[in-house]
Write a structure and sequence with these properties.
It is built from 19 helices and 13 strands. It has helices at 27-32, 79-83, 90-93, 95-109, 124-134, 163-180, 191-200, 218-226, 231-234, 262-278, 280-283, 306-311, 327-335, 355-361, 374-382, 397-411, 424-431, 433-447, 452-455; strands at residues 9-14, 41-48, 70-74, 113-117, 138-142, 185-188, 209-211, 249-254, 286-291, 318-321, 339-343, 365-370, 386-390. Strand 6 (185-188), helix 7 and strand 7 (209-211) form a beta-alpha-beta unit. The longest helix is centred in the middle third of the chain and has 18 residues, at 163-180. Residues 30-212 form the Glycosyltransferase subfamily 4-like N-terminal domain.
C-alpha cells in the first residue's frame, strides 16, 4: 500500500535485455526499480532469457535489483538459426515470445499499464496489439530515434549495415506511426525527438509527453566503489612509472566512441599535436584513455579512436580498449580519473547518458562538443565541465587554444584554474533516479483512463 492507503497499480515493463545482461537500454528500468512502489506502482518485468542473447554480461548488476521484484523471462528464436536468414535482431527473434508471454501476464496480473522501455523498436508494436486485444494502455520510452534521416544529411558518414540498414529504415517508416498512434503517454531522453514527432504526426501534439533523461544512481556509484580495483585498467604506462618520472595526467573517456564522434576527436587530437610540438616533455605526461569504445565482447573489438590519433601523430599518448565494459566497471574507472573526457556527436540532439554518472563522480571534466548542440546547453546548465565548442565547417583555432590552455592547467594541478560552480540542486531534481522515477509514474497515471470512482 502507498502512503495514502490506495492499492498499488501494476505496470508491466518490457525490457528485452535485463541483468545479468549489460546493455545501455536497460539502465533506465534497472535504476528505477527501487522507487516505483513509493510512487504507487508495482513493477513486473518481462524480459528475454539471457541464454537466448549474445550481448555482454555483467553479473554484478544483479545486486542492484531489489530482491522482491518479479521478473518473467521468455525465450526467443535461436540466434544460430535466425542468423542464417540475416536476422540477428533480438526484438525480431523474440517478438512472438514477448507477444504471448505479455498477454498472459496482462490477463493474470491485471496489469494497469504497459511500459515499453528499450531500443528494440519493433517491440513497440506490441503495445498497440495488447491495447486492441486486452484494453491495456501503453507508454513508450524513446531512448533513440526510431525513424531518422541522420545518415541522409549532408556530410554524414555512410550508414552501417548495408541492406540490413535499409530494412531497418523501411521498418521504421512502416511501423513507427502505427505503433505510436494509440500510445497513452510518451517519454524521451531528448526534446528534439519529441519535436520531430510533433512535426511528423499532427495527432502527436495531443499525447501526454515529457523529456525524462536516464539520470544517475547514487546506489550504483556506491556499488562501483565497493568493487575490487581493476589493475589492468588503472595502471599507468610502464615507461612513465619510475619514481623519478613526473605524474601522468589521465584523461578518461568511457563508452562507445570513434565513428559517432570523429569531428570532436579530430579537434582534440589536433590540439594535442600542437601542444606536443611546442612542449614535447610536458605532452609525454598526458595520457588519453578510451575504454569500452564498442559493444563487442573482449577480443573482438576494433579500435576506432587510435586510428584518428595516428592521423595527428599522437597515437602513443592514446590507449584504447575497444570492447564493452560493465556499467559498474565504468563508474569505478570514472572515479579514478584525473580528468573525465566527454565528446559530442555531429547529431546535435545527442544526449549521452554518461554525463550524469560523470557528474556524480565529481572529477574535473573536459567536454569537446558541437556549438549550439543539445549537449552544450546541458553542460552549461549543469555547470560541471570546461566546455570547448566547435563547428563542423569553421576553423577550430579557438577550440585548439582553449584545449591547449586546459592541458597546461591539468599539468599544473589546476592551480589558478577556475572550476565551474556545479548546479547540484538542479542535478538532484532533474537527474537522480529517484526523482526521475516519480516523473515516469506520473506519465503512467496520465495514460490510464480514470476509474469510475475517480470520476464521482
Amino acid at each position: 500500500m502507498t502512503a495514502d492507503a490506495r492499492p498499488l497499480r501494476r505496470v508491466l515493463i518490457v525490457s528485452p535485455s535485463f541483468p545479468p545482461m549489460n546493455a545501455p537500454d536497460l539502465q533506465r528500468v534497472r535504476m528505477s526499480l527501487p522507487y516505483y512502489r513509493e510512487n504507487g506502482w508495482e513493477p513486473i518485468v518481462l524480459t528475454i532469457d539471457p541464454a537466448c542473447q549474445d550481448g555482454s554480461r555483467e553479473d554484478a548488476l544483479r545486486a542492484t535489483i531489489p530482491a522482491d521484484i518479479r521478473i518473467h523471462r521468455c525465450g526467443a528464436f535461436s540466434l544460430a538459426w535466425s542468423r542464417r536468414l540475416g536476422l540477428g535482431n533480438l526484438g525480431l527473434r523474440a517478438w512472438f515470445h514477448l507477444l504471448f508471454a505479455g498477454a498472459r501476464l496482462i490477463r493474470r496480473e491485471k496489469i494497469d499499464v504497459v511500459f515499453l522501455s528499450n531500443t528494440q523498436f519493433v517491440t513497440f508494436t506490441l503495445g498497440r496489439i495488447w491495447l486492441r486485444w486486452l484494453g491495456v494502455p501503453y507508454v513508450i520510452d524513446l531512448q533513440d530515434p526510431w525513424r531518422t534521416d541522420y545518415y541522409e544529411r549532408p556530410g554524414s558518414r555512410r550508414p552501417p549495415g548495408g541492406w540490413k540498414y535499409q530494412l531497418a529504415r523501411a521498418q521504421a517508416w512502416l511501423l513507427e506511426g502505427w505503433s505510436f498512434r494509440r500510445v497513452g503517454a510518451f517519454m524521451s531522453v531528448s526534446q528534439v525527438y519529441l519535436d520531430d514527432l510533433r512535426q511528423r504526426y499532427r495527432w502527436f501534439r495531443f499525447v501526454p509527453a515529457e523529456v525524462i533523461r536516464f539520470g544517475a544512481s547514487e546506489t550504483d556509484l556506491a556499488a562501483a566503489r565497493a568493487l575490487p580495483p581493476i589493475p589492468s585498467l588503472n595502471a599507468q604506462p610502464t615507461a612513465l612509472n619510475s619514481a623519478a618520472a613526473p605524474a601522468v595526467i589521465r584523461f578518461i573517456y568511457t563508452g562507445a566512441a570513434g565513428p559517432i564522434m570523429p569531428h570532436a576527436l579530430k579537434v582534440l587530437f589536433r590540439a594535442l599535436s600542437l601542444f606536443r610540438a611546442a612542449r614535447p616533455d610536458d605532452a609525454r605526461r598526458l595520457r588519453f584513455e578510451f575504454l569500452g569504445t564498442s559493444y563487442a565482447p573482449p577480443g573482438r573489438g576494433v579500435e576506432s579512436v587510435v586510428p584518428v590519433a595516428r592521423e595527428f601523430g599522437v597515437a602513443d599518448l592514446v590507449h584504447e580498449l575497444p570492447h564493452r565494459l560493465g556499467h559498474l566497471e565504468c563508474l569505478q574507472i570514472q572515479t579514478s580519473a584525473d580528468v573525465l573526457l566527454l565528446l559530442g556527436s555531429s547529431d546535435l540532439a545527442y544526449s549521452p547518458s554518461k554525463l550524469y554518472p560523470y557528474y556524480l563522480a565529481a572529477r574535473p571534466m573536459l567536454s569537446v562538443v558541437f556549438r549550439d548542440s543539445y549537449l552544450e546547453s546541458m553542460l552549461r546548465e549543469l555547470a560541471c565541465s570546461t566546455v570547448v565548442t566547435f563547428s563542423e565547417n569553421a576553423p577550430a583555432d579557438d577550440a585548439h587554444s582553449q584545449l591547449i590552455a586546459f592541458f597546461d592547467h591539468a599539468l599544473n594541478g589546476f592551480a589558478r584554474f577556475t572550476h565551474p560552480v556545479r548546479n547540484d540542486a538542479f542535478f538532484r531534481r532533474e537527474f537522480l533516479a529517484q526523482s526521475l522515477t516519480a516523473r515516469q509514474c506520473a506519465l503512467f497515471a496520465a495514460a490510464v483512463p480514470p476509474a469510475p470512482a475517480d470520476l464521482a
